Amino acid sequence: YTLSLHDALPILQDPKKAEAAQEAAVELSLKELAYRQGSGLPVNGSSGGDDEKIAWLTRTDVVIALVELAQTYFASDNKADLSIPLFLRALEILRQEEGPNPTCRQVMLIGDVAAAMGGRAQLPFRVEDPEAARAQTIDNARQWAAKALEINERIPEGEKDEGCYV
């Protein structure tokens, strides 16, 4: 008998509990990030100093929490539009982490923004002119996809991983 991950973690069998856990992780991560930044504590890895200054939470950790919840929302029929702000916040934090040297993670995340916007364009719009809103959303998705390709071109070939080719 082998124990599967689902057997080991019953929360994974209940999508509502899993989503609630992801939401709690995002909330806690963002609060801790704001606290650490406001207190001058590191959020980008170990400072090499005493234990009080070692970052137990990195920007990458926060990005992962945001992206996982965004992907959960994106796969949901009634919460797909909520994925866009999460992807955008993750992108903002990732850009802080990477600085002037974007990586394939940034390319993938920008691609996620484009996909989420494209998916949003397929949902009903509750505005006066839904077709204009849909066209604008599709145009925005195209612009984000073009931005992903542009950043991908700036990454040196030797630094590219599978994410840049996806």
Can you offer a commentary on this structure?
By secondary structure, the protein is mainly alpha-helical. The protein has 7 helices and no strands. The protein is globular, with a radius of gyration of 18 Å. The protein starts with a helix and ends with a helix. The N terminus is likely disordered.
Descriptors:
166 residues, globular, 7 helices, mainly alpha, disordered N terminus, single chain
Q: How would the blueprint of this fold be written?
A:
Blueprint: H1 5-8, H2 15-39, H3 59-74, H4 83-98, H5 104-121, H6 130-154, H7 162-165
In short:
65% of the residues lie in helices and 0% in strands. It has seven helices and no strands.
What would you report as the Rg, rounded to the nearest angstrom? Answer: 18 Å
**Shape by Cα distribution:** globular
What's the count of strands? 0
Assign the structural class, choosing from mainly alpha, mainly beta, alpha/beta, alpha+beta, or little secondary structure. mainly alpha
Main beta-sheet annotation? none
Number of helices: 7
Uncertain residue ranges: 1-6
The sequence of SSEs as H and E is: HHHHHHH
- Strand percentage: under 5%
N-to-C CA distance: 37 Å
Helix content: 55-70%
